[in-house]
Write a structure and sequence with these properties.
- The complex is a heterodimer of chains A (312) and B (294).
- Chain A is mostly helical.
- Chain A has one domain (72-307): MetI-like (MetI-like fold, Orthogonal Bundle), CATH 1.10.3720.10.
- Chain A is built from 13 helices and two strands; from the N terminus they run ααββααααααααααα.
- Chain A has helices at residues 3-7, 26-52, 71-78, 80-110, 117-131, 134-144, 151-158, 173-198, 202-210, 215-245, 247-254, 265-275, 279-307, and strands at residues 55-56, 66-67.
- Chain A is globular and about 75 Å long.
- Chain B is an all-alpha fold and 294 residues long.
- Chain B folds into two domains: 30-74, no CATH class; 87-291, MetI-like fold (Orthogonal Bundle), CATH 1.10.3720.10.
- In chain B, helix 2 (31-57) crosses helix 14 (259-291) and helix 3 crosses helix 14.
- The relative contact order of chain B is 0.13.
- The chains are: A mainly alpha (312), B mainly alpha (294).
- Chains A and B meet through helix 1, helix 2, helix 5, helix 6 and helix 8 of A and helix 1, helix 2, helix 4, helix 5 and helix 6 of B.
- Chain B: Belongs to the binding-protein-dependent transport system permease family.
- Chain B: Its main location: membrane.
- Chain B: It comes from Microvirga alba.
- Chain B: One of its GO terms (biological process) is transmembrane transport.
Chain lengths: 312, 294
């Protein structure tokens, strides 16, 4: 490779690298593969999507792009579909919290004294959903929740309850998709919390106990503050990616229906883009989503810096 | 690496109990309730997977029974799947895509991390930020320009098209960056004084010592690429050139109620990942936990 020429410069002696006066090509050569990939496939498309959000276009290379200014944005903001999708996005995210943060946190603290060989068996088992492909998870749950023959509905029937059209009933479909998304995460989150909980310096807990603190006080005043970095990390992940994670399930299982009840913002982008080929709308909605989530992300990162109690 | 994780996990649990026992009777969940909680969680996690495998082994006349084990296990469903869709071809495609993607992740990540750790150059902070923040851009936002670019490059319906955009990933760069940062600089300095070039330092000194991180990144990248659905959904046209996730989705759309074959296809698509997990479960769990969620 061609970096040898550039590398020759600093090999003279113990001379510190930063002192090199001239532009050093070597780092750029090493960076090139990753940097070019990320710029070409993430940042340039982002800029292009921003431009496209001001045009009307149907993605056919032969048809012209027509500049429409802010019309796409203005149109979207008045569209009930968009409002419903944004509301659903919020529901997806809030609905995921119990399964990605609250229950795992409670289970991790509750089971912290678990020892012995079973510990590893549980670890191994509860992690499995994380590595199962989303498409497989979708298909398996579609079978388990099938209205006529699915095991869950057969069980409901046996218990004398009504069968539920988990994916057909607009009242249940969204909750069902949240459940499947959460099913993939719950074990992983639990393990993450367990590891964080176990790494808390035991002398803190001991000291508090000597002072007569109850178990609840120890959890509230010691464990939760020391777990706050993990809590914030998982909360941030849930907020930023929760709606994205459910995309596959929406696409495979409901197509956004019934009655658009499961369409979130990311599915709407897909629907506008590759369903109705309205590139302008899709790009404009994408820009709105990107701006929103970026603001949330920076807010979360600041919160993480400020609120975390670090164990030093 | 694996052992350090276990040490962390066990030390917390081990040190706690003794001292306080004398203090007073405290409300503390008994072993039984703890086990019950974990069994419930494990059941929820594993039962759907178990049911997938069991259903795939049930004959057509038995598929609607609720028996937890088929009365006469048969592989007929698998035969049906293999005769209906080019499953083996798609599994091979997926193996190629996931394998090459994982290798590229590791390579590009290694180079970029080396550049960022070894040199302080103008814009290095900016470049780091650019790479680190790329996970903020949702793929659905850039999908149209990506699709247009891929079609302009003639990448539609090709395996290369599935690989090229994923040749580098922010998490790979960051993971290796942090691993390399903790690498003792004295060793590198010593090698440099012996006249070793960067290329050799990277391959002969750093890489062998980062084996654990590289392996865990490779596993993670392989599994993520294997399970990837969205980008193949955009690019794939013919079933012969697609990956197994797309094949599954197509099969479901066509034969949505043939539950036995559908479960057999799902099982086939999951087997390689489950096999990796069985062999390397500690490393797999750890590599997911180290990288966060992506």
């Amino acid at each position: 490779m061609s970096e040898t020429r550039a590398v020759k410069l600093p090999t003279g002696g113990i001379r510190a690298l930063p002192a090199l006066p001239r532009l050093n090509l070597a780092p750029w050569l090493y960076l090139a593969p990753a940097l070019i990939t990320i710029v070409v496939w993430t940042y340039l498309p982002l800029i292009e999507a921003f431009q496209l959000s001001f045009y009307q276009w149907n993605m056919l290379p032969t048809s012209p792009k027509r500049f429409v200014g802010l019309a796409n944005y203005a149109h979207l903001l008045t569209l009930p579909e968009m409002h419903a999708a944004l509301a659903n996005t919020a529901i997806y995210i809030l609905g995921l919290f119990p399964m990605s943060v609250i229950i795992p946190l409670a289970v991790a603290i509750f089971t912290q004294d678990l020892k012995g060989p079973m510990r590893n068996v549980y670890r191994t088992l509860i992690f499995v959903p994380m590595i199962i492909a989303p498409v497989v998870a979708a298909i398996v749950w579609r079978w388990l929740l099938n209205e006529d023959h699915g095991l869950v509905n057969v069980a409901l029937d046996t218990l004398g309850l009504h069968r539920i059209g988990f994916l057909q009933d607009p009242n249940f479909a969204l909750a069902t998709l949240i459940w499947i998304t959460g099913w993939k995460l719950i074990g992983f989150s639990t393990l993450l919390f367990s590891a964080a909980n176990a790494s808390i310096n035991p002398s803190y807990v001991e000291a508090a106990r000597m002072d007569g603190a109850s178990r609840c006080q120890i959890i509230r005043d010691i464990r939760l503050p020391l777990l706050s970095p993990t809590i914030l990390l998982l909360s941030m992940m849930t907020v930023l990616f929760g709606a994205q994670w459910s995309f596959t399930y929406i696409n495979v299982l409901t197509g956004g229906g019934p009655l658009k009840s499961t369409t979130n913002i990311f599915y709407l982008l897909w629907d506008y883009g590759f369903g109705s080929l309205s590139v302008g709308w899709s790009s404009a909605a994408g820009m709105i989503a990107f701006a929103g989530f970026t603001m949330i992300a920076f807010f979360c990162l600041r919160l993480m810096k400020r609120c975390s109690v670090y164990d030093n | 690496m694996t052992t350090s994780m276990n040490r962390v996990l066990s030390s917390g649990a081990a040190v706690e109990p003794e001292v306080s026992r004398k203090a007073r009777p405290r409300i503390r969940p008994g072993a039984l309730t703890i086990h019950a909680t974990m069994i419930l969680l494990a059941f929820i996690a594993i039962f759907p997977v178990y049911w997938m495998v069991v259903s795939s082994l049930k004959a057509e006349n038995e598929i609607f029974s609720t028996g937890l084990w088929p009365s006469a296990p048969s592989l007929d469903n698998y035969g049906f799947v293999l005769s209906q869709i080019p499953m083996l071809r798609m599994l091979a495609n997926t193996t190629v895509v996931a394998g090459v993607t994982a290798a590229l992740h590791v390579l590009t990540g290694l180079f970029a991390a080396y550049a960022l750790v070894r040199w302080r150059f103008r814009f290095s902070g900016f470049v780091y930020g650019l790479i680190a923040l790329s996970w903020l851009v949702p793929f659905q936002v850039t999908m149209i320009p990506n699709y247009v670019l891929a079609s302009r490059l003639g990448l539609l319906d090709t395996l290369a098209g599935l690989i090229v955009p994923h040749a580098a990933a922010a998490f790979a760069v960051l993971m290796l960056y942090h691993a390399m940062k903790s690498f003792p600089t004295e060793i590198i300095e010593a090698a440099r004084m012996d006249g070793a070039k960067h290329w050799r330092i990277l391959w002969e000194i750093i890489t062998p010592n980062l084996r654990a991180s590289l392996a865990s990144l490779g596993i993670l990248a392989f599994i993520s690429a294997w399970n990837e659905y969205f980008w193949p959904l955009l690019l794939s046209r013919s079933i012969e050139n697609s990956v197994v996730q797309i094949g599954l989705q197509m099969f479901m759309t066509q034969e949505g109620n043939l539950w036995g074959p559908l479960m057999a296809a799902s099982t086939l698509a999951s087997l390689p990942i489950l096999a990796i997990y069985l062999l390397l479960q500690r490393q797999v769990i750890e590599s997911f936990m180290k990288s966060g969620l992506r």
